[in-house]
Amino acid sequence: MRGLLVTVMKTEIEDLIGLGHTKLGFFKEVQTKIGELQKSNIKLEQKRRQVQAILDGIADIVAVVAPDYRIRTINNSFYTVYETADPLNALCYKIFRDRDEPCPACPMREALQRNRVCRQHAIITINGRNRHFAITASPLRDAEGAPGDIILVKRDVTLEKEYQEKYYHAEKMATIGLLAAGVAHEINNPLSAIKGFTQGLQRRLPKLEQLGGDEALKEDYREYLDIIHKECQRCADIVQSLLTFSPRKYPEFCRVDLNQVVENVMRLLHHRLKQLPDNMIRLALAHDLPAIKGHPAELEQVILNLVLNALDAVDETTGKIVLRTRSKDDDRVILEVTDNGLGIDADNMNKLFEPFFTTKPMGQGIGIGLSTCYHILQAHGGEITVDSAPGKGAVFTAILPRYSH
């Protein structure tokens, strides 16, 4: 038909179900999304609380710090050390160090620049007391590996440092005591001789006076001998004061079962041996071993030093140590400590039993262990020998006399 205009229009959902129904469906979809978001927020909040609970359970101070030095998160351990009410969003150097500008050697800045974990020890004055902290700064990296915030962990090691200093002081005092005892005994011998001869001359003075002669010369002799005697006595007092530094006294020896002493030492090492392979140390103790005459505590010290040296020498995975006892002849008992460790260089063999000689790294030994073993065994009437070669381990042999009535 002419003049008839047909218009084709696109049909929308509103045309089919109506605008009201469309809005109703939209609102339902929005409500669904809101519900999902609320559940997601609840889960995120639960995770946040869980993470915060984990942080609060850590005894060290843990803080998350932004690159601009502002504290984002802190755990409860912070409040046991610092008295700041609210450190959040505050500058870390102001809170931790009471400074107005960033610290010169800042582990956080170094961690950001190098994008790796940085560690540092620092002494910080808090409430008038110096406290030692081991500080670790770890960068939190984004998806591309770039550093963002920094996790700062501060461990208070003040008590550990104090105990460490006491331990080193005790080691130094033990060393001084060993030296003092040696020096004192070496001085005592000539001092006793001088004092004895002085007293002998003083006893002979009356006979010299009966012979006549120059009275002034006799008076000089009397004065000089009196001075020598007094000075000898003063030296003896000084030597006695030196001996007060030494913890060692002459012990009373008794009948000792060497096998029992070895087993006691193994019990002392029980906690350390739990961290090592089960078969690293093996005992080969002779049955019906004759008793020896000695001091159990000092013999334990000898065996303990030998075993600890062997543990330092062997590999933690392939190391083997054998403690063997046996009798030799009719009057001696043998203790051998054998290891398959690094061995000993020929140049060091003659220095092993010297005080302060050690092949261990700095801070791991002061070189008096074997020297102490030597002096203890010598006091027991025994001796100690070593057989070793580089790469072939070592055998330390302690020889002790049998107990006799």
Order of helices and strands: HHEEHHHEEEHHEHHEEHEEHHEE
Q: Looking across the biggest beta sheet, what order are the strands in? A: 2-1-5-4-3
Gyration radius, in Å: 40 Å
Shape: elongated
The CATH architecture of the largest domain can be named as 2-Layer Sandwich
- Helix/strand-derived category reads alpha+beta
Distance between termini? 146 Å
**Percent range for helical residues?**
40-55%
The H-level CATH homologous superfamily of the largest domain, spelled out, is Histidine kinase-like ATPase, C-terminal domain
- Main sheet specs: 5 strands, antiparallel
Count of DSSP-assigned helices: 12
Kindly report the average pLDDT value.
79
Domain count: 4
Structure description:
- The protein is 47% helix and 20% strand.
- By secondary structure, the protein is of the alpha+beta class.
- The chain has 4 domains: 38 residues; 100 residues, PAS domain (Beta-Lactamase, 2-Layer Sandwich); 82 residues, Helix Hairpins, CATH 1.10.287; 148 residues, Histidine kinase-like ATPase, C-terminal domain (Heat Shock Protein 90, 2-Layer Sandwich).
- Helix 6 runs antiparallel to helix 7 and helix 10 packs antiparallel against helix 12.
- The termini are far apart.
